[in-house]
């Protein structure tokens, strides 16, 4: 049985992870951490460094500013971490990168299998269509989401740039633009409303034809399930920074 600490346990995703773990014999939530310390079925602390329970791994769905403190506490406890939180700054990413030299860290802006498959399809399409098609990404999420654009939209954009030798320049929305679109632009657009769980569309627009590759999350369970699989994977790894690609490759 894998013993888990949920960081961000009182949030929407923290509660989903706790529910999925309670339904499985493979996982046990031994403690939670949240700035809102409302009681749950396990002890809740306001800081990982104060957690007394023994654990194998931390799963984080919290807020980007909380991540450096979490990672530093995990480093002291020598605990592997699964980071699902998005909106991380360059500085926060640096803290994660440094810590991953000493503990295994799994980080993905999207824990669903489907988005990982979408990224592979988008990379292939971008390679083939790069000369004649403009690429734009539209993402849609619920009205409670704090960061924009989504971590997933940025991850998709980075994967496109990876196969196109960094030739794409990101344009966030177009309200400040008063000139024609340049071929090297990659537009990224965010929509927020209602209870939309998560939609990502990658549009390849050519002359008189459009190809759209899209993913629609129908529940938060897909992210929670993916995070639990990532936890199972990361506890057996050496120090390093791992992604969904590593998990999928392992099968
Ligand atoms: N990678 C993925 O697949 C995936 C999926 C869904 C959400 N997310 C990301 O996960 C994060 C959380 O999403 P959510 O919908 O659960 O948000 P939420 O706002 O419902 O929950 C966040 C929780 O973190 C807690 N928190 C905030 N600051 C904290 C701190 N300093 N220390 C401890 N706890 C703190 C809040 O009190 C809250 O309970 C967001 O960044 C979101 O984008 C990622
Ligand atoms: O609900 C959220 O917030 C989500 N955030 C992730 C992102 O920013 O890409 C993944 C989907 C859900």
UniProtKB/TrEMBL annotation:
<keyword id="KW-0560">Oxidoreductase</keyword>
<feature type="active site" description="Proton donor">
    <location>
        <position position="145"/>
    </location>
</feature>
<feature type="binding site">
    <location>
        <begin position="108"/>
        <end position="111"/>
    </location>
    <ligand>
        <name>NAD(+)</name>
    </ligand>
</feature>
<dbReference type="GO" id="GO:0009089">
    <property type="term" value="P:lysine biosynthetic process via diaminopimelate"/>
</dbReference>
<dbReference type="InterPro" id="IPR022664">
    <property type="entry name" value="DapB_N_CS"/>
</dbReference>
<keyword id="KW-0220">Diaminopimelate biosynthesis</keyword>
<feature type="domain" description="Dihydrodipicolinate reductase C-terminal">
    <location>
        <begin position="114"/>
        <end position="247"/>
    </location>
</feature>
<feature type="binding site">
    <location>
        <begin position="151"/>
        <end position="152"/>
    </location>
    <ligand>
        <name>(S)-2,3,4,5-tetrahydrodipicolinate</name>
    </ligand>
</feature>
<feature type="binding site">
    <location>
        <begin position="8"/>
        <end position="13"/>
    </location>
    <ligand>
        <name>NAD(+)</name>
    </ligand>
</feature>
<dbReference type="GO" id="GO:0008839">
    <property type="term" value="F:4-hydroxy-tetrahydrodipicolinate reductase"/>
</dbReference>
<comment type="function">
    <text>Catalyzes the conversion of 4-hydroxy-tetrahydrodipicolinate (HTPA) to tetrahydrodipicolinate.</text>
</comment>
<dbReference type="GO" id="GO:0016726">
    <property type="term" value="F:oxidoreductase activity, acting on CH or CH2 groups, NAD or NADP as acceptor"/>
</dbReference>
<protein>
    <recommendedName>
        <fullName>4-hydroxy-tetrahydrodipicolinate reductase</fullName>
        <ecNumber>1.17.1.8</ecNumber>
    </recommendedName>
</protein>
<comment type="subunit">
    <text>Homotetramer.</text>
</comment>
<keyword id="KW-0028">Amino-acid biosynthesis</keyword>
<keyword id="KW-0457">Lysine biosynthesis</keyword>
<feature type="binding site">
    <location>
        <position position="142"/>
    </location>
    <ligand>
        <name>(S)-2,3,4,5-tetrahydrodipicolinate</name>
    </ligand>
</feature>
<comment type="similarity">
    <text>Belongs to the DapB family.</text>
</comment>
<keyword id="KW-0521">NADP</keyword>
<feature type="binding site">
    <location>
        <position position="34"/>
    </location>
    <ligand>
        <name>NAD(+)</name>
    </ligand>
</feature>
<feature type="binding site">
    <location>
        <position position="35"/>
    </location>
    <ligand>
        <name>NADP(+)</name>
    </ligand>
</feature>
<keyword id="KW-0520">NAD</keyword>
<keyword id="KW-0963">Cytoplasm</keyword>
<feature type="binding site">
    <location>
        <begin position="84"/>
        <end position="86"/>
    </location>
    <ligand>
        <name>NAD(+)</name>
    </ligand>
</feature>
<dbReference type="InterPro" id="IPR022663">
    <property type="entry name" value="DapB_C"/>
</dbReference>
<dbReference type="GO" id="GO:0051287">
    <property type="term" value="F:NAD binding"/>
</dbReference>
<dbReference type="InterPro" id="IPR036291">
    <property type="entry name" value="NAD(P)-bd_dom_sf"/>
</dbReference>
<dbReference type="GO" id="GO:0005829">
    <property type="term" value="C:cytosol"/>
</dbReference>
<dbReference type="GO" id="GO:0050661">
    <property type="term" value="F:NADP binding"/>
</dbReference>
<comment type="pathway">
    <text>Amino-acid biosynthesis; L-lysine biosynthesis via DAP pathway; (S)-tetrahydrodipicolinate from L-aspartate: step 4/4.</text>
</comment>
<dbReference type="GO" id="GO:0019877">
    <property type="term" value="P:diaminopimelate biosynthetic process"/>
</dbReference>
<dbReference type="Pfam" id="PF05173">
    <property type="entry name" value="DapB_C"/>
</dbReference>
<feature type="active site" description="Proton donor/acceptor">
    <location>
        <position position="141"/>
    </location>
</feature>
<feature type="domain" description="Dihydrodipicolinate reductase N-terminal">
    <location>
        <begin position="2"/>
        <end position="111"/>
    </location>
</feature>
<dbReference type="InterPro" id="IPR000846">
    <property type="entry name" value="DapB_N"/>
</dbReference>
<dbReference type="InterPro" id="IPR023940">
    <property type="entry name" value="DHDPR_bac"/>
</dbReference>
<dbReference type="Pfam" id="PF01113">
    <property type="entry name" value="DapB_N"/>
</dbReference>
């Amino acid at each position: 049985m894998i013993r888990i600490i949920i960081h961000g346990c009182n949030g929407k995703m923290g509660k989903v992870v706790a529910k999925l773990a309670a339904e499985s014999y493979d996982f046990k939530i031994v403690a939670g951490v949240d700035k809102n310390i409302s009681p749950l079925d396990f002890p809740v602390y306001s800081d990982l460094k104060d957690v007394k329970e023994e654990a194998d791994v931390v799963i984080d769905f919290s807020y980007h500013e909380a991540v450096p403190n979490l990672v530093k506490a995990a480093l002291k406890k020598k605990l592997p971490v699964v980071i699902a939180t998005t909106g991380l700054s360059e500085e926060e990413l640096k803290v994660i990168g440094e810590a991953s030299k000493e503990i295994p860290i799994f980080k993905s802006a999207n824990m669903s299998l489907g988005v990982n498959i979408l990224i592979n399809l988008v990379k292939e399409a971008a390679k083939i269509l790069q000369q004649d098609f403009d690429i734009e990404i539209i993402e849609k999420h619920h009205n409670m989401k704090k960061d924009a654009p989504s971590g997933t939209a940025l991850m998709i954009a980075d994967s496109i740039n990876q196969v196109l030798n960094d030739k794409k320049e990101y344009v966030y929305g177009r309200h400040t633009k008063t000139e024609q679109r340049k071929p090297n632009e990659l537009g990224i657009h965010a929509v927020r409303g209602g209870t939309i769980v998560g939609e990502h569309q990658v549009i390849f627009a050519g002359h008189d034809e459009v190809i759209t590759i899209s993913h629609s999350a129908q529940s938060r369970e897909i992210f929670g399930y993916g995070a639990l699989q990532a936890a199972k994977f990361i506890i057996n790894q050496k120090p390093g920074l791992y992604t969904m690609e590593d998990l999928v490759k392992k099968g």
